[in-house]
Amino acid sequence: MKRLQFILENETATVAFGKRLAELVTTIPLDSLVVFLNGDLGAGKTTLTRGFVQGMGHLGNVKSPTYTLVEPYELESCRVFHFDLYRLADPEELEYMGIRDYFQPFCYSFIEWPEKGAGILPAEDLIIDLEYVEQQRRVTLMAKSVRGEQIINQLV
Predict the structure, then answer these.
(1) Which of 83, 102, 138, 156 could form a disulfide with 111 if both were Cys (CB 3.0 to 4.6 A apart)?
(2) Are 144 and 2 in contact (CB under 8 A)?
(3) Closest Cα to residue 97, out of 127, 64, 126, 121?
(4) Is Nucleotide-binding a UniProt keyword of this protein (predicted)?
């Protein structure tokens, strides 16, 4: 399993990192991607996702789907789904919302609190752990598939 670590100075750097991931997805090219995001509340999971969504061409706001479970972004060439499973009581709830329909070709999914969907979610391509170290964010990427490895190889 390939692993890579970065230190991001601030929120602006976190958004820029998300945009860099978007650029890689389009240049490699990857037809889909499942990213698990781990980190405490306020660690930058939504901030990183905002950068990705904007990097894929979205011009509007990118908000946390804490209460809606998923925020969809229908873009010209793809769809991006931002999941926040923090408030999920039972993984079976994902079946009721038709979770399998979200994981199609040309769909990129960023999933916060993925452990709450254990047994229902598809396998991840990339795990991104975010944590604060002093005033900065440490971002650790772990490839879990060939797609994940392609991304990490491009970031090195």
Answers:
(1) 83
(2) no
(3) 121
(4) yes
Strand partners, 137: 8, 132
For 14-61, the pLDDT digits (tens) are 999 999 999 999 888 888 999 999 998 878 899 999 999 999 999 888
Handedness of CA 38, 39, 41, 46 (dihedral sign): negative
Query: At how many degrees (to 10) do helices 11-27 and 45-55 cross?
Result: 50
Q: Tokens for 95?
A: 């079946």
Q: Which of 84, 73, 94 is nearest to 39 (CA)?
A: 84
The owner of tokens 């047994």 is 119
Q: Is 40 exposed, middle or buried (0-12, 13-18, 19+ CB in 10 A)?
A: exposed
Maximum pairwise Cα distance, the chain: 41
Q: Residue 81's beta-bridge partner residues?
A: 72, 109
